[in-house]
Design a protein that fits this description.
The chain is an alpha/beta fold. It has two domains: about 5-40 and about 295-395, Aspartate Aminotransferase, domain 1 (Alpha-Beta Complex), CATH 3.90.1150; about 45-290, Aspartate Aminotransferase, domain 2 (3-Layer(aba) Sandwich). Helices cover about 40% and strands about 15% of the residues. The chain is built from 14 helices and twelve strands. The protein has helices at about 10-20, 45-55, 70-80, 100-110, 130-135, 160-165, 185-200, 220-230, 240-245, 260-275, 280-290, 295-315, 335-345, 380-395; strands spanning about 30-35, 95, 120-125, 140-145, 170-175, 200-205, 235-240, 255-260, 325-330, 350, 350-355, 370-375. A seven-stranded mixed beta sheet has the order 2-8-7-6-5-3-4, sandwiched between helices. Strands 9-12-11 form a three-stranded antiparallel beta sheet. It has a two-stranded parallel sheet with strand order 1-10. Helix 2 runs antiparallel to helix 11 and helix 12 (about 295-315) runs parallel beside helix 14. The longest helix is centred in the C-terminal third of the chain and has 22 residues, at about 295-315. It is globular and about 60 Å long. The mean pLDDT is about 95.
Length: about 400
């Protein structure tokens, strides 16, 4: 077996099950689960119809590069969404089976272990655990860059030592961030691009929450930032997904776009990896990327939940509406794990301790003292959970 498997940490939800072991929650209250970031809004009918209309696609092996129709639909969407020049569907876009799979596989493609020193992969902290697993299984060393309230929940790139940058081959960026919902500014991107130019590392920009925002200003994307700064896409790729945007997590559909040279190598890897997207999924995905009406309705539903829930939680916790995403990142009194455990026991509400989403780094766990609340349930359930959380906090 690969020795790197032993380096993997338990997934946050496995740790949550262990935290709740032996607890009997209040039987008088229905369970409200706000721990998992799984969209619960209805799947758009147009996606269902497209799947049904394309069952014949099951009779053919899919191409790893995906169909021209899907890559062209993605190019149209990126141009509309970010105002950038049209991405070349043949060389700058690659459909993938959801951003999670692609984020992991991409690291296996770009990490080069042939040098004398162990390569480093930089990750925000807290972070999406796939970044860490991808680094470890690519035989690289993860390095965690803390994101705290003092840095607007953005990675503190200035705190990274010179010797770390010199070994860095890949930097994961998550904007809007999971779990904080914070969005990187153009100035943030400019600093990171300058570092990439200096040290030669690749930037993998995870943007799967980009379409869930609440103001008129859309979250800035990595390719968009490059275009605004007059740059090309060298050493830059973005990852996007239909899961959150279109409420189809089971579809497992996303794309990678950007540096054509990197994507050519990634396509070669994937040709051997055997992870082509089903033709019927491709057809339904093209329909989804070409439609914005269902996305606007999705944002409306989330905005209504944040508007209803946040003021109630603010009577008991330190919490604000994020820049984007469907999470609330709430500061709690005392231990986040103790808070989550007792909340589950007394109020039958499940939230995720922030420390489960981060690592101890540079003398602190930046997730400690926070909980992540995923507003994915119905508005009625989310508001009920907020009432219980406030009641629990004020009575503790």
């Amino acid at each position: 077996m690969s020795p790197h498997l032993a380096q993997l940490h338990p997934y946050p939800f496995q740790k949550l099950r262990q935290l709740f072991a032996g607890i009997t929650p209040n039987p008088a209250l229905a369970h409200v689960n706000l721990s998992i970031g799984e969209p619960k809004h209805p799947t758009p009918q147009l996606v269902k119809d497209a799947l049904i209309a394309n069952f014949d696609g099951l009779s053919a092996y899919p191409a790893t590069q995906g169909s021209d129709a899907l890559r062209t639909a993605i190019s149209r969407w990126a141009r509309r969404r970010y105002g950038i020049s049209a991405l070349n569907p043949a060389t700058e876009i690659l459909p993938v089976n959801g951003s999670r799979e692609a984020l992991f596989a991409f690291a296996q493609t770009v990490i080069d272990t042939s040098g004398g020193k162990k390569p480093i992969v930089l990750s925000p902290n807290p972070f999406y655990q796939i970044y860490e697993g991808a680094a470890l299984l690519a035989a690289a060393e993860p390095y965690y860059v803390n994101c705290t309230a003092e840095t607007r929940f953005q990675p503190d790139w200035a705190a990274v030592p010179e010797d770390i940058w010199a070994r860095t081959q890949l930097v994961f960026v998550c904007s809007p961030g999971n779990p904080t919902g914070a969005v990187a500014s153009l100035a943030d991107w400019e600093k990171l691009f300058a570092l990439s130019d200096r040290y030669g590392f690749v930037i993998a920009s995870d943007e799967c929450y980009s379409e869930i925002y609440f103001g008129k200003e859309k979250p800035l994307g990595g390719l968009e930032a490059a275009a605004k700064l007059g740059r090309d896409y060298k050493n830059l790729v973005m990852f996007s997904s239909l899961s959150k945007r279109s409420n189809v997590p089971g579809l497992r559909s996303g794309f990678v776009a950007g540096d054509a040279g990197l994507l050519a190598q990634f396509l070669l890897y994937r040709t051997y990896h055997g992870c082509a997207m089903s033709p019927m999924i491709q057809a339904a995905s093209a329909v989804a990327w070409d439609d914005e009406a269902h996305v606007e309705e999705n944002r409306r539903l989330y905005a209504a939940k944040f508007e209803a829930v946040t003021p109630r939680l603010q009577t008991a916790l330190e919490v604000d509406v994020p820049d984007a995403s469907f999470y609330l990142w709430a500061k709690v009194p005392g231990s986040d794990t103790d808070f989550a455990r007792r909340l589950y026991q007394q109020e039958h509400v499940t939230v995720l301790p922030g420390s489960f989403l981060a690592r101890d780094a540079h003398g602190v766990n930046p997730g400690a003292g926070y909980i992540r609340i995923a507003l994915v349930a119905s508005q009625e359930e989310c508001l009920e959970a907020a009432e219980r959380i406030a009641r629990f906090t004020q009575s503790s």
